[in-house]
């Protein structure tokens, strides 16, 4: 297959977005950063949200923090944070004045989630204790509440009618992404596919506010765990922290007893020993199941707004699912999962290294979702995690590579980066500044097309994807799609994917590669039809007739696809042959 | 029936025991008081336990504390207390030296309960935090424990063989009463029935150490509740605190949210109001059920030594039963039961007013148990509580009365004693010094016989027992035995008792009254057979042949009883006629 003739030159848009994307990530992942948050007493109406480019300059100089540093900061910040349900008619300034009698408010924002809510970050943790001490238990139903005192409050006006007059317009931070059809509209106004990809990233990625809410959700769950295990921490992992999270994605969190266990058996001086009497169980798994079970019950019975609590304790990784209404998140709570957090850190590093990484991942995942290749329900679909790993692998394979292999990251690791977890080597560099920036200058336009071409032609029958080595490796077993778990090297992260789903992916990738190759710059403006990335976000069967016809005129890929679908060919190789005819 | 010719003169034994009985009660109920507890560093062998008379002098001058004062002190003391499981070979002094590096030890004692345990009371609560900080998590099974850090520890010798040589003899405080057959032996050596009754009281009543353990059990459960409800308190009620508890009886405890609810809705200044978001439930009962359910699960899954946890949530008073191995108690945990605590206080007052009260109750209850009139299993049996109330009523009816009626106690109440709970008037005086001591000087010998005679002749068919008024009242409904709940005046505390059980009680009371009347002072020493109270503690069918024959010679009551048993006569009145023939 012929290579496309050169990439489109970097647009100004891309140039401007690239840096803030990176800076925002390391300062806490979001592209629409902290500048948006109000400070104490300030309750001004803020500008409607834009692509975030205007915030770039302020954030350029933020140094690249390590994953651990960001997590520690965020967790600590969340401990100083409360959430208040507000009346629909609100004078934001008065709320802040009222609260500031308990301490300095460092930041805050408002959002809509079954009513208006305010997230308030105090400068000092003890301001919360002061507030809690002054707040009452719901009085109307005094005897029918579970008197668990959390950091969730309700703010009320005593005389709503007279006070409503005082209301001032408030800015509400969006906590969900725009619908695909609105996204397509926005994409059409861009001047390059690269720009389109950054716009998509900007619309879909987690915001600063949303990340704070996620850490708050973890911190509120921690309050339940801490009740019995004072040294425990509830940490978010996966998409909430790996820089690849999309607005609206679930919050994966786990209960970390790490510190508790490190403290073991200190008091051993003299001829005596003293230890805690503790419930002993025949396995760690059983202990974790019991702990999760009880915490699940606590959330269910005591936690305000914790609903639909579901215990899934017999899964490989026992967990409790619940819906946290105050923050609006669907949460999955499991117990200490050190490898999962390493996996999040690895993606965090990749996401921070080059802004093209996240832009490409978000585009590919959005494309996969539109075309039914991924699905939020469990099944034989490719997962977002697998897709992300495929993009990483693709970026490792570029020449020059855009991101390093895991083995290369391991070489850069220093002593404190050395971690062996459950017998698996999870060592890699944590300090981003030690990683040499890529010399690759390919545009996202090029990378997007090449990605689909690369996987449209990948020999899935024979080869597996190995991010540690950054090269194709013979498949160790016969799963249709084999992607090595980067740390637990005996596991295939895409074991769930069956042959038909893989074939669908390959067929779609080829179709997409072909569309991108045929993309006619001059045509798209005249037609006023979705073009570039926008065109890829419409299910192929559903795009309008003209567009369709244009496509079919090409090499009749639509016909071929239908044919393939009906034949249900069962190997990527035969599929390849069919297309090459 | 003829009155016995005069009471036996007060023996020296009785004179000496009477005061300590009282003093120990007000200082915390037990007859073998605080003097027994070691103080810091002291690990001397203590004298074997005696009737406790030698401790009388030290306690005489303790002022009569109110029930609330005693509870508050005990609860606070329990918060400063820990429990340590020790090796069987122990050098007590070294253990104390070791612990005193964390703070001053105010008192301690050792006891046997599935191994040797030490209860340690620190002077300061923060000594426990210091100790907890230094103590390790069991290391051998590091990953298979539930890391809940309680106040239960295990003390180990690193080198048991060499250190065993250093062991010193230790005194173990008994936590259970002697078997009935041993009791009978002891009783036979006394010189009067009064003395016998005090010996029984002394052997069976809760000890200072046992009371501490009970409060510690509550305090440990409180740690679970406090995790979510920081202002909550777990309070013992019933036999653990009402001065009528027997060694080995269950610990009834309830979770008190009282303080939490009093604090409601303080922050109401200005035009705003702020309240906690809390789980709301359609009824208080449902809230209590949910809270008990979760705390039950916590105890079951996290609580070291909490076993056989049983949730009985659909009972009139929802509760969680569990066995607390570290203290050796069977516990019943319910939620806020203000009337139950008022009931405990009332009995506490009666128990403190005159030492004869507790001595008579313990004797009657022991008698009832031996003869199968009471049973620890639920059923149609008379409960210990009902029996106790019958004794109280009997003592109110003496002339002059030995204890006042509840209405008289209410007249003495001041403003702070006024309590209306759930619409029921629970007001009565709390200050014991306001109650005029009785002028009644009857001996226990007399009172015991009169008790059985009184209830052997009571018209249960027509009359009910009302402690508020201190007189028989027409039965408001047809339950065989009707004893007015002193506070919830529409409830009969002995509703469970059926006609056959009541008849059995009446028959036994008559038989016993007759035995006591026939009691031959001169005979008993010659025969070397159980006499007086001892004779009453042998099931009538089982006493030896000679004794039996003597009895039967009387009026053939045994024959009559058999006859009655076989006829299953169904009213006390017909029974009465049968006996009177």
From TrEMBL, chains A, B:
UniProt domain Poly(A) RNA polymerase mitochondrial-like central palm: residue ranges: 193-351
PANTHER family: POLY A POLYMERASE CID PAP -RELATED, POLY(A) RNA POLYMERASE, MITOCHONDRIAL
GO cellular component: mitochondrion
Pfam families: MTPAP-like_central (PF22600), PAP_assoc (PF03828), RL (PF17797)
Cofactors (names): Mn(2+); Mg(2+)
PAP-associated domain span: 446-481
InterPro entries: MTPAP-like_central (IPR054708), NT_sf (IPR043519), PAP_assoc (IPR002058), RL (IPR041252)
CDD domains: NT_PAP_TUTase (cd05402)
Protein name listed in UniProt: Mitochondrial poly(A) polymerase
GO biological process: RNA 3'-end processing
Domain RL stretches: 66-134
Naturally occurring in which organism (per UniProt): Strix occidentalis caurina (northern spotted owl)
Signal peptide bounds: none
Molecular function GO labels: metal ion binding; poly(A) RNA polymerase activity
Keyword Magnesium assigned: yes
This protein's UniProt keywords: Magnesium, Metal-binding, Transferase
